[in-house]
Structure formats: structure tokens, C-alpha cells
Amino acid sequence: MTPTTVPADSAAWDALIEPDRVHGSLYTDPAIFDAEMERIWYRTWVYVGHESEVPQPNDYVVKSIGPQPIIMSRDKQGEIHLLLNRCTHRANLVCDAAKGNSSAFRCPYHGWTFSNTGKLLGYPFNSGYGGTEEKRNLGLGRVARVASYQGFVFGSFAEEGPTLEEHLGGATDAFDRLVELSPTGKLDISAGWLQHEAKANWKMLVENETDGYHPQFVHASIFSVAKSGIGDLYGEKSTAVSRDLGGGHTENDLRPEFRRIDEPMGWFGTTADRLPEYVEHLQAARGPERAREIMIDGAPHVMVYPNLFIAEIQLFVIQPLAVDRTVQHVTAIQYEGEPQLNRRMLQQTIGSVGPAGLLLADDTEMYERNQRGVHARTPEWLVLKRGTHRERRDGDGFTIGDATDEVPQRAIWRHYRELMEAGDGDGAVAPPAVPTANGSVR
Amino acid sequence: MSERRERSLPLGEAAAGDTPVELVSEFAAVSLVVDRDGNGPRLRIEDLKTGQVGFLDPLELETLAWLPEGALHRFLDPSFHRWREERERG
């Protein structure tokens, strides 16, 4: 693959991104990767963690925004902070444990000590600094903006820009649907995180999460072994749709199939009579009629750009570390107060994406083969034409295609190009356009 | 606790109810046990990294429970006492 440099203008981007194909160097060029970090990861809203991961005052967890090490802490007043996990003295990681409870963090290198809000409290032998005045300017680095939606905490390094809800746009519905499945309206993201490293570019993972074309091939073995009907959801006869939610957010909407099959909890591969406690709680919370609809529709399958994949029963968080190195953090979604349902969610998660799981291993093999393949000198392009001729608008004005179409991939690259073309400016990126029901864009 | 012992037991022999509890984070490791050597109970805190021992009586503990946010910050400054040149202590 011919090395390139970061395009300086729109015409130069034309040479790399077309509406239905993209140039392979975008997956292999370190200069492109560096620009992506600045223009996408350190500017837009990026998912960091869930409020339930720091339930108590002084709880903290170690997180990331791409290669940036982040501490997500909850202070004694309950406010959540996103701090850079880097001592302001000589740059050591201040926190190493995955999680803990502490009002203050002490760097293990020279003992500099910070409050969990980031304030520098002091350092050993302070006479060596001739006073304490400079402490004020030596607090931990901070992610400029922190906001949450339905308990999901996002951070943005840009001081200004769209609000989180503007950024999420059409994807807010996915979060609303997810929490509606919980009788209390709350999730409990406490099952722990698996980390899978792939020797591949992060965009291959993002594109694959809502790729409805690959499951019947890549995952044929697990569908066969598990006697799963999931594969049929992604076939030519499926009534499921692929959707561009705007802002780079994409969806495989399986609800049309689930509604056709009309089996409560069918989305979860089971039946309502096997989860009597959950069904009772959901009916009490939502009413029998709405509870049935919720149990038919199931949980969303939505890729929230650039790094949060809500995969029905799991959350995936994508962490790019280098142009050809990406970590996927995975956890089972758990619903507050629902041990019966949660146990099955955990078991299914272990079976599909655990250390010996069959699903993510399939995908990771594809990512790594893809990364090797994309280095080939010719052809230079990846083709994303599938379903171009049958794109259409849904009732909400979103562009949709058939279940196996590449509507999501084209949408991801359109948004990618907008962000990258905006350059390294002042961080003011316009919020994604949200379509209206008549197909216009507001 | 109505029972009052005549002497403090070594930690390993502590009676039921006075079993030491270890609290460990990535920043500190301490062992806590109720000490009954005196005329009233008090909390014995041992820094497991250095063996340093400190005590807090019920009034001191109650005071800690009522501390406003940030009141411990000056004590968490390593230079407050522990890592401070002798000539600076006053």
C-alpha cells in the first residue's frame, strides 16, 4: 500500500474516500492514525465508562480514550471526573489498579499526591520546591467536558462543541431502549471487563460491528453448534434493516424480524417462561402490554461512533493504540436487581466473547487477516457498494438498507471524512444532521 | 462489648469480634483492630508496609465521620509530617 500523508484539502480527500469505496492506506498509514486521534478521538465525544462502575463516593476506575490513560472518579459529593492518569511531576501512571476506592491518589514514583478531583495535595520534602505556590498549576490533567446519557459517561477533550445529546443524535434511542429493558430503568455494569487485542486498525472493528453481511460466513460455526437462529436474521430474506443514524452512528435493526416471529424474549434466544422473575418485574414496571412489546423488540445492536458498541447483551469499547493495534474491552450488560436474567447474560457473554468464546475469536481472526490483506499493493480500494441501489428512508427519515447492505459502512466513512476534513481547528465540529420524518435534514 | 480483657492479644490471637481487618488499596495497606489495653476501646491502625502503628479513640473517630469534604487534604500532603526534612518540623 502506497504510503500517503494526511490530505490537506477536500480534493485530496477525494483521492482516498469515495461514497462507496475507500483507499486501503487509511488503515495502514501512521500519519493518518495520528490525525484521527487529534480530529476524532481528542475532539468529539468518546465513551469512557458507566456511572454504575463508580457507585460509591470515592470510587474510581481506570479507563481510556484511545491511547490516553484516564481515571474516572466519583468524588465525595457524587460528581464524576475524568482525569488524565499521568503524574504531573515525571509522567508516571498515578493509578494502576483497574478499580478502587480512595479520596486521594499517590504516585508510586515520588509520592506526589492528588485528590480524586485532580487537585495536587502535596509531595514529599516540599522545601525542595521553595514553597507551595506552584501546586495550584500542577493538578492532574482533565478531560475538558464530561457528560452522561442514561448513565453512560462520555468525555470530550474539546472545550467547546456540540453537546453530548447533539452528538448522539439519532443514537439516543438505543440508550433509551436499553434502559427500558431494565425494570428499574438502571443498568449495572459491574460484571468485569475482558480485553481482546487485535493486530488491526480500529476502523475495521467499527465497520464490522454493524456489518450484517458477514455473520452467516464468519460465525457459521457457532450458529451451527449453538443451533442459533441469529444467522437467519442476517440473510437475504430477513426483514431486518441496516440503518444510518447520522453522526457516524449505525444500526442493525432486528426488530422487524423479532416482531414477525412474535416471541417474547426471543431476541435473547429464550422464552419468557424461563425468566419468570424478570417478566414479573418488567410487567409491574411497564404494564403488561408495553412489557410484551419490550420483550419482543429486545435490546439494540448499535455502534455509537467512534467507540461504543451496544451489542444486545454486551458492551464493547474500542480502544485504538496504534495504526495496527486495537483493544476491545467487553462486558456483559447487567440489569439492576435482576439476578435471574443477569446470570444468563453473563453465561452467553462468556460463551461468545470469553477467553474460549467462539464469536469474537471469529471476528478477531477476520480483523487481523484484513490488516494483512490491506497492505497488498493492488487493488488499492475497499468496496462498499452493497445495497447502494436499494437505499431508502424509514419513517423517521433515516437512511436504511436491507439487513446485509453496507449502508452503515458508507455512513461511517461519510462522517469520518467530515471530521477529518475539519482539520485540527478549534474543536468546533458541527453536530450531526438529524433527519426529519419527511426526509429533510435539520 | 461487655467483656474487658486484661491485656492486648497479639493480632493473630485476637478474640472473635476483635479480628483484625486488612484494608488494602494500591496506595496503602493497613490492619485495623479494636485495642482494649486502655480504660476504653480504641482503634489500632497498623501500616502494613512499615509497621507504624497509630490509634484513634471513639471521639476522634466520630470527628472523622463528621469531617467536611477536603478536611483531610492537608494530612494527605506527604510533606505534612512523614516525608519532611527534620529541620522543617516545628
From TrEMBL, chain A:
InterPro entries: ARHD_Rieske_2Fe_2S, Rieske_2Fe-2S, Rieske_2Fe-2S_sf, Ring_hydroxy_dOase_asu_C_dom, Rng_hydr_dOase-A. One of its GO terms (molecular function) is oxidoreductase activity, acting on paired donors, with incorporation or reduction of molecular oxygen. It holds the Pfam family Rieske. PROSITE patterns: RIESKE, RING_HYDROXYL_ALPHA. SUPFAM superfamilies: Bet v1-like, ISP domain. The keyword NAD applies. Keywords: 2Fe-2S, Dioxygenase, Iron, Iron-sulfur, Metal-binding, NAD, Oxidoreductase. PANTHER family: 3-PHENYLPROPIONATE_CINNAMIC ACID DIOXYGENASE SUBUNIT ALPHA, CHOLINE MONOOXYGENASE, CHLOROPLASTIC. This is Putative dioxygenase hydroxylase component. The lineage of its organism: Bacteria, Bacillati, Actinomycetota, Thermoleophilia, Solirubrobacterales.
From TrEMBL, chain B:
It comes from the Bacteria. This is Dihydrodiol dehydrogenase. It comes from Patulibacter medicamentivorans.
